[in-house]
Amino acid sequence: MKKLSRVLAAACALGLMTFPTPSRAQEGIKVLADGPLRPALIEIGEAFRRDTGRRVEFVFGPSPVIHKKVADGEAADVLIIQPDFVAALIKSGKVVSGQHPVIGRVGIGLAGRADGPERDVGTTEAFRQVLLNADSLIFNTVASGNHFATVLERLGIAESVKAKLVRLPPGAGAYERVIQGKGNDLAVGTIPIIKVTKGVRLIGPLPPEFQSYLVYAAAPMNGAESPQTATTFIAFLASPAARSLFVANGVE
Predict the structure, then answer these.
(1) Of 52, 23, 29, whose CA–CA distance to 225 is shortest?
(2) Domain 106-210, second-level architecture
(3) Structural element, H or E, at residue 201
(4) Element (DSSP H or E) covering residue 191
(5) Could you read off the pLDDT of 162-174 as tens digits, one per residue?
(6) What is the pTM of this model?
(7) How many other CB atoms are there within 10 angstroms of residue 69's CB atom?
């Protein structure tokens, strides 16, 4: 906590933040954030409220969906999405230009039913055999799923498993399909979400040579209702307290 106090004090000295007065103690912000960060950000938002008295309302969704919402006019104070989408929104005037810190990255993993058999995915050949033996391979139509499609090509098994591939939009129930399956259905997704989804377990991350990371940046929006609190929150994301919560929830 002493370290966190020093971080916040330094940011205040630089004009990045102010601490709440009684009349503004309940001032809050709206944050649009990508779904894999949800487990960490919910806890970080609560830590921020305890430290500053200011609440954080999160709205989660895939980066492409958030980008479209903002482009179509949805208002918020802070965006936490993939940097390419931030750059596009800067060009359209929706996001404040300048430096936008990368706040973390998440890896991609393989999920099976919680009561399913143990599987070894620690080597390329073991990983390949697990995929070939699966009844179905379920993955999404955005960044993590697009990457996994290239992994199948690189493994040389894209044609062999074509009939068992199931691609779903984000939030369309990939893990529910695994839970309701026969025990040999597998889903591919971001590691933090796999870890907190009841009924499934993390078989393992993709082998290092096939791993890819989704990177996230935090940016204040133009027209924010609470711009100073937004800047305070972005600074808080770099604090030791926030970093420990990110790591505890699978965000590197």
Answers:
(1) 29
(2) 3-Layer(aba) Sandwich (3.40)
(3) strand 200-205
(4) helix 191-196
(5) 999 999 987 768 8
(6) 0.82
(7) 16
